């Protein structure tokens, strides 16, 4: 089933994928999925937990985290490892790339046709079964720059010499 846009289409898609994987559709799971779909960025389990508690005060962090991991396992969402080590979740399964802020850990999506067309080297495909590819840019985001956060001089020197 192809993913449909719009709230009703997203809920239909969620329901279909859950049923196909014999996953019970509960109000809590629906709410978790809606929170994810409504986030402009890539929320952590902790963020989703804090939001959902207003509607489900007795829900545990473990239930939220387990639901998110299950959603990833059945292909509803993707797991994105951030530079801060916090696992984040991406409901956008369409081809796109990521920008990671190395200071605050936020993750932003971007599109770039040239990056989509990058070929995987034979030295990789001969040894591995490639299931996807995504370009990740490590940056300091505008908000962190405004706060005066920057690379420390030692790290900056390592980045510059690695590219030389």
Walkthrough of the structure:
The chain has 164 residues and is of the alpha+beta class. The chain has two domains: 1-92, Winged helix-like DNA-binding domain superfamily/Winged helix DNA-binding domain (Arc Repressor Mutant, subunit A, Orthogonal Bundle), CATH 1.10.10; 95-164, Dna Ligase, domain 1, CATH 3.30.1490.190. The chain is 43% helix and 13% strand. It contains eight helices and five strands, in the order ααααββββααβαα. A three-stranded mixed beta sheet has the order 4-3-5, with no helix packed on it. A two-stranded antiparallel sheet has the order 1-2. It starts with 6 loop residues before the first helix and ends with a helix.
């Amino acid at each position: 089933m192809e993913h449909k846009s719009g709230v009703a289409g997203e809920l239909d898609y969620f329901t279909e994928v859950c049923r196909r994987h014999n996953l019970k559709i509960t109000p809590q799971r629906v709410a978790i999925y809606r929170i994810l779909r409504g986030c402009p960025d890539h929320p952590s389990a902790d963020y989703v937990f804090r939001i959902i508690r207003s509607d489900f005060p007795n829900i545990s962090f473990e239930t939220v985290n387990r639901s998110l991991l299950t959603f990833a396992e059945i292909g509803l969402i993707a797991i994105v490892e951030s530079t801060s080590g916090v696992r984040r979740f991406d409901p956008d399964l369409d081809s796109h790339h990521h920008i990671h802020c190395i200071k605050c850990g936020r993750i932003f999506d971007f599109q770039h046709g040239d990056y989509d067309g990058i070929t995987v080297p034979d030295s990789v495909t001969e040894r591995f079964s490639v299931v996807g590819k995504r370009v990740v840019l490590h940056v300091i985001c505008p908000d962190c720059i405004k706060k005066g956060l920057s690379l420390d001089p030692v790290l900056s020197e390592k980045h510059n010499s690695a590219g030389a």
